[in-house]
Specification:
This protein is mainly alpha-helical. It contains two helices and no strands. The longest helix is centred in the middle third of the chain and has 50 residues. The mean pLDDT is 83.
């Protein structure tokens, strides 16, 4: 048992006595316990929120199935034809303008 005991050093390079080192470890342990409890509470809150969102999602899906899948709206064929005519006319006018210059 000829090993030398090296005492833990503080940030400023001073060595701590056994009481101070023990006190520091106790403080670290308390801090970790508080963090662990806070995280457990946060996990419980998130689990509750997740369950609520899953229930709401299920309700919305049920409402959607009750409403049925409505057929997509049919567009008016005359408006579609006029849109195509306007595009073709615009393209021809642009082509005529380019060849003229």
């Amino acid at each position: 048992m000829s090993e030398l005991w090296e005492e833990p050093k503080e940030e400023d390079g001073l060595t701590l006595g056994p009481e101070e080192a023990l006190q520091r470890e106790i403080e670290k342990s308390k801090t970790l316990k508080v963090d662990r409890l806070r995280l457990r509470d946060e996990i419980e809150t998130l689990k509750t929120e997740k369950a609520n969102l899953a229930q709401k999602n299920q309700q919305l899906r049920q409402r959607l199935t009750k409403l049925g899948n409505p057929a997509p709206e049919k567009t008016d064929s005359s408006s579609t034809n006029s849109l195509i005519f306007a595009l073709v006319f615009g393209f021809l006018a642009l082509l005529w303008f380019i060849t003229r210059n």
